[in-house]
Amino acid sequence: MGNTIENRHEPRLAYRWPVWFGEDVTRAVFPGLMEDVSSGGLAFTCQADQGHLRQGQQLTVRFSLPRFDGRDTQATVGITRTGHICWAAPAGPGAWRIGLQFDVPLSLKPAEEAALATLCPNDVP
Fold this sequence. Notes:
The chain is mostly beta strands. It contains one helix and seven strands; from the N terminus they run βββββββα.
């Protein structure tokens, strides 16, 4: 890995789960795979033609996160957010890594919630 400077306000939760995205999710949607998520945005990989996804482009994404409540470890909650592409980088032939910043942050911090659920698995709110 190279030396990179990151301006993250909170830790990100590494989470591999399907994500669906498009400029308008009522029309064409495309699949991707989430890499990590925070309250302010997410990173995902997808197959796309060069130029199809560009920095500054507005997208709507649908994804799921764990419920972090301890009752059912497989339970997830569906989320839809709009945001803009902060960065797009090649990730192999026809594949791209995308960084998306949400227009409206999540009401939770996924990495902190996951850490609390691990530390206190029986404490259900």
